[in-house]
């Protein structure tokens, strides 16, 4: 990446308020197409609010969000999704009464006329997550938390978005399911998928990411390459369990 490249996504001096409470303070973030960028931090650090700002779920009170040269701050979430952004939300948010297969097709709805491509992508999802193939006719609400996370990822893959925004994919999962989820994310990265990842599990997020930002109380306090942050004593102490 060179400084002359126009960022694929750029947040410029973003403030976000929830009523009288300010959640983000002058946040700046950039990413290039094909990059994986992680936003790290503890509870109430502002990392999920940063993601929600990109997705149009909250509207900044100050600053600009620019996607492929277009300002998107203030757009509603459906309009952001129409621009090619896919989401894997915190808590999965699958459609509980619909089957696994129907949930996946909901992800593909914006490209519903691409029938052959959708069939190929469904095959890829079922190959990546054999449990979903076994349960394709099962109601999504009856799946375990790990299986629902697989489904949320598969649904996002069916969207074939230019950008995938992923919020806390390891939250509440057993180590085995975390490994399964991140194996797929590593494959997405290898395929060139652009990913904006919010994650409390800093160790595995930094293994996946090209670059990362650390938020604390709504402020970006550290940013750099994943290797730089992994070697930073302050990050090691606060987020990686170093003594």
Describe this protein's structure.
The protein is α/β, with parallel strands linked by helices. It has two domains: 1-22 and 31-84 and 162-243, Rossmann fold, CATH 3.40.50; 95-160, no CATH class. It contains ten helices and ten strands. The protein has helices at residues 47-55, 77-82, 100-107, 115-128, 130-134, 145-159, 175-190, 202-208, 226-231, 233-239, and strands at residues 9-18, 21-31, 36-40, 62-67, 70-71, 85-88, 163-167, 194-199, 211-216, 219-225. The strands form two sheets. Strands 6-7-8-3-9-10 form a six-stranded mixed sheet, sandwiched between helices. A four-stranded antiparallel sheet has the order 2-1-4-5, with helices on one face. Strand 9 (211-216) and strand 10 (219-225) form a beta hairpin. Helix 3 packs parallel to helix 6. It starts with 8 loop residues before the first strand and ends with a helix. 40% of the residues are buried.
Secondary structure: elements and pairs:
Blueprint lengths: L8 E10 L2 E11 L4 E5 L6 H9 L6 E6 L2 E2 L5 H6 L2 E4 L11 H8 L7 H14 L1 H5 L10 H15 L3 E5 L7 H16 L3 E6 L2 H7 L2 E6 L2 E7 H6 L1 H7 L4
Parallel strand pairs: 3-8, 3-9, 6-7, 7-8
Antiparallel strand pairs: 1-2, 1-4, 4-5, 9-10
Helix pairs in contact: 3-6, 6-7
Describe what is shown at a glance.
Keywords: Amino-acid transport, ATP-binding, Cell membrane, Membrane, Nucleotide-binding, Transport. This is ABC transporter ATP-binding protein. This protein is α/β, with parallel strands linked by helices and 243 residues long.
């Amino acid at each position: 990446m060179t400084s002359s490249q126009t960022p694929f996504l750029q947040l410029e001096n973003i403030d976000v308020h929830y009523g009288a409470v300010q959640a983000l303070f002058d946040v700046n973030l950039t990413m290039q197409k094909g990059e994986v960028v992680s936003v790290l931090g503890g509870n109430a650090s502002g990392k999920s609010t940063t993601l929600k700002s990109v997705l149009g779920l909250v509207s900044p009170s100050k600053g600009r969000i620019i996607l492929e040269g277009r300002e998107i701050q203030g757009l509603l979430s459906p309009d952001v999704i129409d621009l090619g952004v896919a989401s894997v939300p915190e808590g999965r948010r699958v459609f509980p009464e619909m089957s696994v297969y129907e949930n996946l097709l909901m992800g593909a709805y914006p490209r519903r006329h691409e029938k052959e491509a959708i069939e190929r992508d469904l095959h890829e999802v079922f190959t990546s997550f054999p449990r979903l193939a076994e349960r394709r006719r099962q109601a999504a609400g009856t799946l375990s938390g790990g299986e629902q996370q697989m489904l949320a990822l598969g649904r996002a893959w069916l969207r074939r978005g230019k950008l995938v925004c992923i919020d806390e994919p390891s939250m509440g999962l057993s180590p085995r399911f975390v490994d399964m989820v991140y194996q797929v994310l590593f494959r997405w990265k290898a395929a060139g998928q652009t990913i904006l990842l919010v994650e409390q599990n800093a160790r595995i997020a930094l293994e996946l990411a090209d670059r990362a930002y650390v938020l604390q109380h709504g402020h970006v306090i550290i940013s750099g390459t994943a290797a730089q942050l992994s070697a930073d004593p302050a990050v090691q102490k606060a987020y990686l369990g170093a003594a």
